[in-house]
Amino acid sequence: MPAIGNEIGFATLPQHVHRKYAKKGFDFTIMVVGESGLGKSTLINCLFLADLYKSRKMVPVEELVERTVFIEKKQLDILEKGIKLKVTIIDTPGYGDAINTKNSFQLVENYIDDQFNQYFKDESGLNRKNIVDNRVHCCLYFISPIGRGLTQLDVQFMKRLHQKVNIVPIISKADALTPNELHLLKKKILKELEEHNINIFRIPECDSDEDEEFRRKDREIKDSIPFAVIGSTIQVEVNGRKTRGRVYPWGVIDIQDEQYSDFAKLKTFLSLHMQDLKDATNEVLYENYRAMFLAKIGNDSIRLTTKDLSSATPTDKLLQLKEEEIRRMQEQLLQMQEALRQSSAPVSSAQSADELSPQSGKDDE
Ligand SMILES: Nc1nc2c(ncn2[C@@H]2O[C@H](COP(=O)(O)OP(=O)(O)OP(=O)(O)O)[C@@H](O)[C@H]2O)c(=O)[nH]1
Ligand SMILES: [Mg+2]
């Protein structure tokens, strides 16, 4: 049984996955989103944050995880079996009432866009080798166990964000349902996601050289989605072992017990597929964003060129012409950078990951 909370289980990974990250180190950004009170902060606390709360001495349990009121960003450095893992955790306020729903949507979307923007600027700048990748690689989206599938809010939100971030659906508070109810709810959610054309993160097929154990684990994980988890901020003792758990009048549940909770599977999913989540962010979601951004710049400049200048004052005319010139120059610069990017791509992909310096390979990972 590993130490609780601050370990995500690299030690249990197959050797080849472990080796891949051993030299380079690894950074990863994860976000939690969903209605207020569904247990987002609690789950984050279970996955990563136990020791971030150490400084809060003798706080009552209920204060360990308070209601989130704004976007909270925390960074955690984990050293596990020789691998340096830097996790950035983005905890968002849940949408609890109709008034703040729109604000919460906007807040989260703006955050994701801002990270894309920053990355785009950095990529277009001179210091391309040292870009820090703060893009959100994974969004755990929380769904209520007591509804009858997805709410309108869930659908609206996921539709708005599925092309910007990898969505991983989570049914929270799985202790509220029987195994059969959970099974039916999972099926219903998957059906509804399909009906609404919402793209959730798809785990790629295993490589042909993966061993049987890896394939089995991967299959199990795929079949568990949406992950139905139980979270807790308290430690309990189960069969003489200390673990995180929930205490009920009829007994105690260990949140890692796979009979009741997919928490352990979620952890394995994260450790096995962090790189896939990063790849999908870089190669699909960010590329979409970039293409749209470049198209927008192009359209703006056409609109400006065709604008009627006859009614403008001389100063306005001069200003508009100058703006047009600046835009044209920006466009040229972007085209040059794009050409440079394409011409350098085969060289960087030919380099092995180990040859790259820890900061240089952000967009090649
Ligand atoms: N029964 C049950 N309760 C849970 C579980 N996880 C969290 N809770 C409880 O649910 C309440 C809300 O949890 P939070 O983690 O604060 O919820 P949140 O989604 O972060 O809420 P906001 O910050 O308001 O968006 C707390 O009282 C938790 O103890 C669970 O798996 N089962
Ligand atoms: Mg919270």
Would you kindly provide a written description of the structure presented here, covering whatever features stand out?
The relative contact order is 0.12. By secondary structure, the protein is α/β, with parallel strands linked by helices. It starts with 14 loop residues before the first helix and ends in a 15-residue tail after the last helix. It has two domains: 10-283, P-loop containing nucleotide triphosphate hydrolases (Rossmann fold); 290-364. 46% of the residues lie in helices and 15% in strands. The chain has helices at residues 15-22, 40-49, 61-64, 98-124, 152-161, 179-195, 212-224, 263-305, 314-350, and strands at residues 26-34, 72-80, 83-91, 138-143, 167-171, 227-228, 235-238, 241-248, 251-254. Helix 7 packs across helix 8 (263-305) and helix 8 (263-305) packs across helix 9 (314-350). It is globular. A six-stranded mixed beta sheet has the order 2-3-1-4-5-6, sandwiched between helices. Bound molecules: guanosine-5'-triphosphate and magnesium ion. Residues 335-365 are annotated as: Disordered.
